[in-house]
Amino acid sequence: MRANRAIFAGLTLLLAGALCAPRGYSQGRRGDAGGESAQDPQGRRGSGQQAAQPQGTSTSAQRGPAPEDRLSVTHHTAKIGGQQITYTATAGTYVLKTDEGTALASVFFVAYTKDGVEDISKRPIAFSYNGGPGSASMFVHMGFGPRRVVLTSDGHGTPAPYSVVDNDDSFLDATDIVFIDAISTGYSRPAPGENPNQFHGLNEDAAAFANFVRLYVTRNLRWDSPKYLIGESYGTTRSGALAGVLQQRYQMYLNGIVLVSAVLNFQTLRSAPGNDLPYISYFPTYATTAWYHHLLSADMQKLTVEQIAQQAREFADGEYASALMKGDQLSAGERQKVVQQIAKFTGLSPKYIESADLRITSRRWFKELERDKRRTIGRLDSRFLGIDVDAAGEGPEYDASEASYEGAFVATFMDYVRRELKYETDIEMLPSGPVQPWNYPQNQYGDVSETLRAAMTRQSHLKVLVVAGYYDVACVFHGAEYTVNHMGLDPAVKKNISFTYYEAGHMMYIDEKSHDKLHKDVVNVINASYPH
Q: How far apart are CA 441 and CA 22, in angstroms?
């Protein structure tokens, strides 16, 4: 078997002990708005594709012409971080190959590198991507890159004509950035005749990304540079896995990881019989959202969102968690007290809470919170409101937040990559690619926290920043807090991980009040994680 196929298979075995999740479950961007669903929550094209074939195999389809590297290099100037920066943009594809030269996949990327750097070994480089799994890097690209899409001040999309402007809050003032599309998303594709499913899985995806990072770092003489991963959503899951692969396979050490809207352990998000943890994880976000929509008592509304979040954490981890643990042993008096407290924090009626047996799934909550106003709550950003055809259903028809701005992101990226980056192709750009079923290792819940713990322990200098939105209901902040608090990090290592919070949702960079703070937080971590 070809060498790189053996590498991919070996990496799968390397990670299998630390990564476990239910087949068919993913933290998707679109579709079924509840994180608890065991079905494909993305609603993407191709989600009904064939079952995964053995890794490293070709399909029966006849091979077409082998893909080749295609690069477009352009030069630009932008005002970033209060300064004029000249930079080079390289947009195109690298072909991942076996040691024998057989093409495996063509990976699309856009690299932004600052001009005039005398010693690139001292210049940081970051690799950035979205999640899904199945999402292209378009969203973080137009949020973290040197050009950004123009939205309203609170992040809502606008009608066409769309436009992009210099992104003063890009991270390019502190680090070079490479945005990568996962295979079968964006412009990335498996090579003709290659089985796409060899790239569609937690371990498989991490192996492919590690191979690309190795290739980019080698070709561009960046082995000595400080290195960072910046992932969003399932991209944070990928970062946890990728940190382990890069270290164990290639002995490539990282300086920092930025986890934007993090999920490292899917047990915190997916409710199932016997797993009450998600109800605790989601609860503080239910409370902050109710506060935002002015659904709480007058005394509660006088508090800040930070105070609401803290009080909700204390109740969720204490009295609420205890009640759920007691199950049928909970007394009637205890039950009524907990019902009243849940109603106090969430704005839901005691009757509804009783009917749900104290356990409100996010999908039901999206529909119930503003049902009397015939409005639904956004999943990626709970400040957004949607309108369904009726108010009687169990869950929302769509995610009101993503529906607001997705069209603007897609249109501006499609125009920008061709008009400004001069990358021309007629293949379809897939914002959401056909990657289902996504292959997970055995057992029930995907969990890369142990992989990240091991990487942080071995790389004692590795800094991790968790970026959390108070109104993100896709990757709730208390779930990330729980995961970090249960990683078993030694205090000497745990001091290297920090949290930062935003009055925003999943994509805090769409919000005018938040993207400046995000820039400062990320740049501070980068600057503090390497000698310069």
A: 8
